[in-house]
Every structure is written in structure tokens, then in C-alpha cells.
Model the fold of this input.
Amino acid sequence: WQTLVGGLLLHVSWKLGWVEINLCSRSEILSWLPASVLFVGIIYAGSRALSRLPIPVFLTVHNAAEVITCGFQKFVQKEDISRLRASGLVCFFPLFYSVLFLLAAAVCLPFCDTQFDPNGYLWALIHLICVGAYKVFHKLWKPSSLSDLDQQYINYVFSILLCPSGDLFSALDFPFLYFYRFHSSCCASGLLGFFLMLHTVKLKSSTTSGQYAAWSFLAK
Done:
């Protein structure tokens, strides 16, 4: 529902000329499809995890995905991930140690959870891996024409086509499927996610890479 609403809003905005989307290069669209597969994995695994875990627990595990991206930058690309200090924001801890705190919080969760659900944590772990892999793929992929909006549009279309084939029959048994509040909340989630995506793209284009990384990390 959320990706359907977001995809429709982005498509309408494109047709009305409010945003610019360019999908002329078929080769670059195909090269982005692995990221779209990871995007679907993020949605599907995240939904399954959220159905079993409390929201604070899920968000703690989700934020630990920064360990994958920062580890990749530090040990594979040999980048200086302390560039947050150069962004004009005050950081009390180096970024690397802050990420370790996120990892430690996620690792300690199962041992402190009195309502431990192994399947919920398994789906949360799959979600974490998909989020980290998506961010790493985005860093490695060097597009020449696809913008952030182009990439998101492809993600929306791919998820709309792929997600309904996942648990269609299980979805029919969902107890709140015919409640208007469920559908209205899904639409509201898609609407808010769409505006958040637009704001993120605008923030990324109006700030330096260091400032954007700083705000993204502090938002977690």
C-alpha cells in the first residue's frame, strides 16, 4: 500500500511537471535493478519484523545497518569516516564509536527482551542486511544520468510489481484487512513517506556530502 501510494504520487508529480524524472537509458535502469530487489527485501522483511516486534526494538535493529556502511567505508574503501567533524555539526563521539554503540544496542536487545520472538529477530536481521547492502550498492554504483528521483521511481514500480506476489493468500487472512482505519493509515504512511523522500532529495542536493551524512546519522 505504501509503495503504491508513493509511486502514484511520484508519477502524478512527474506528469504535472512538479518533479523531473528521466528514464531514457534502459541499460542504466537494468543496472539499478539489483538495488530495487534489495529495496523490496527491505520492505518485505521490515513488514514481517514489524508484525512481530515492538517498534522501538525494530528501529534499534534498523539503525544498526549503519555498521555495514561505515565498515565498508572504513575497511574496504579506506575512507575517513570521521568527516562528520568537518560538517559544522557538533559530535561528542567519533562516528566509528557511535556506530559501535548502535551495534552494541542491537546485539543486547535479544538478551533483554522478555518477549523474545526468534522469527521476528530473524526478519529484522534480514531487513538490516538488505538496508546495509542497499546503501553499499548505492555507494558503489556510479550513475551518469539516473537521479535520486529516478532511482526511487524505479524502486516504487519494481516493488509494486513484485510485492503482491509475496504473501497474497496470507494477506487475505489479515484480521484488519477490511477496516477503513487500516487502509487510511496505509495511505497516510505512503503520503508521509513520499514527502519525506522529496525532502531528503532536496536536502541532499542543497548540502555537501559531509553535511548530509551528518544529518542522516544524527536523525537516527
Residues 83-93 have pLDDT under 50 and may be disordered. The first helix runs from residue 2 to 15.
